[in-house]
Amino acid sequence: MAVDRRIGKTRDAIFKAFLSLMEEKSFEQITVHEIAERANVSRGTIYLHFVDKYDLLDQCVEQEMTELRDRCMGVQENLDFTSSGPLLRTAEYVEQHATVFITLINNSGIPAFRSRLHTMLMEGLAAQIDMEGVNRGMNKEMLLHFMASAAVGVMEWWITHSLPISAKKLMEDISILLERNQMGPQPLDALPRQ
Fold first, then answer.
1. Measured in Å, how far apart are the chain's first and last C-alpha atoms?
2. What is the extent of the structural domain holding 35?
3. How far is residue 157 from each of residues 4, 5, 36, 99, 193, measured CA to CA in Å?
4. Does residue 85 sit in helix, strand or coil?
5. Is residue 25 in a domain?
6. Confidence of residue 50 (pLDDT cuts 50, 70, 90)
7. Contacts with 58 (C-beta within 8 Å, 6 or more apart), sequence order
8. Are residues 31 and 100 in the same domain?
9. 188, pLDDT greater than 70
């Protein structure tokens, strides 16, 4: 048990050192030597845990997204996916851990973050989306991708702009946008001519 705790502490120290360096400089400028110095470990210790700094970045994003998923998406409930449920908890978690997410997104973490968040939202929306009414006859997978991509894009904008509005306001606006999407656009021949 003591060995596992030491391994966890070492990995945490490396992650913290890595994130603090990413707040100061671009990912490309960071060296494994600097990470080791900041974490107060040897370079060899870093290579025991990670293949290289790219693996460290991937695992750092993975750890944050796993924590986010477990805290925000893991609760089983029959609530609306948007403002009253997991999506609001996700935004609130990001808001509470803003420094980490802003650092990751603004410093080469966008593809990994976007992919993981998109997957999480797809899973959450799949159980919530109503394929009757206005969605009858639509391809569910395409609709899920559309809605998840829109939500991820807005979350990405929110993080890259240093959270200019509250998590609650963000989710209220996303909820409105998702509801509008359910209504669908008017047919082209029903639009007024100019």
1. 73
2. 1-50
3. 38, 37, 32, 15, 34
4. coil
5. yes
6. very high
7. 112
8. no
9. no
